[in-house]
Design brief:
253 residues, 23% helix
Length: 253
């Protein structure tokens, strides 16, 4: 999904479209990228993008699932009364917010210093869709093996990795192909190991395409034997429905 920065109405409309399509296709879980609702913004530059869990924007996102049988994972910047905001993924079912995962790992500092602007979560919760237990990791959490180990310890069969891996370099001259392969190689290295070590499925839902000042790559699904069993064909925005054996049907955008 192209998650434009500081464009909640636009991103909410895309979220609604994808949820309707996923519902029509009988999807159990639809997974949106990191900060899919707010865009991946610097909260000092866009303080109005830091959302309260009981605020109207989250309520609107939750309402999109009302009366539906699927679970939706939606990304936001979340207000933190104790200080810096969290990068959070909401777990939404039948019009209700039923859980929140907060990013636990800071990545390498970026040009705009965004990684310095968020607080980190303190726990690794798991969540349910019917009888399926699943976990969530956010972008730089991929380097934190403890998160995957803890998800597996709590009975998770699949971990959804949501990400906004901005490609390096000036946007006007940025090389899409090298960025595409950088993310693909990084995912293969991390998730091939985690899946085999902990017997997990891992599905990766990333931001894609071009926003106002960044470009983003693609998504994957890895099986418990370490194989990449699905990959989006390029860095274009789009949707992929993937049948995951014994884990229902998941949908990444």
């Amino acid at each position: 999904m192209v998650c434009e920065k500081a464009a909640i109405a636009r991103n909410l409309a895309q979220t609604a479209h994808y949820i309707e399509q996923a519902t029509a296709e009988g999807v159990n879980i639809i997974v949106f990228p990191e900060t899919s609702l707010t865009g991946y913004v610097n909260p000092e530059q866009h303080p109005n993008m830091v959302l309260r869990l009981d605020g109207p924007e989250v309520a609107q996102a939750c309402a999109l699932t009302e009366g539906k049988s699927l679970t939706a994972l939606v990304g936001i910047l979340e207000e933190n009364p104790a200080g810096k905001p969290f990068i959070s993924q909401l777990v939404v079912q039948d019009g209700r917010l039923v859980g929140v995962y907060r990013k636990m790992t800071r990545g390498e500092a970026e040009d705009d210093g965004l990684e310095d602007w968020h607080a980190v979560g303190e726990s690794v919760p798991v969540f349910q869709h019917d009888t399926l237990t699943f976990g969530i990791a956010i972008c730089a959490d991929s380097d934190n093996e403890r998160i995957f180990a803890e998800c597996a310890r709590q009975g998770a069969r699949i971990v959804f990795v949501v990400a906004a891996p901005g490609l390096y370099g000036d946007q006007a001259t940025r090389n899409w192909e090298s960025g595409f392969h950088w993310w693909k190689d990084d995912c293969q290295k991390q998730f091939s190991s985690h899946t085999q070590t902990y017997g997990l499925w891992i599905a990766v839902a990333t931001q894609a395409g071009r926003t106002v000042n960044e470009n983003f790559p693609d998504g994957y699904v890895f099986a418990p034997d370490g194989r990449c069993v699905f990959a989006t064909p390029d860095w274009s925005a789009g949707m992929a429905g993937v049948e995951v054996p014994e884990c229902f049907r998941v949908f990444t955008s």
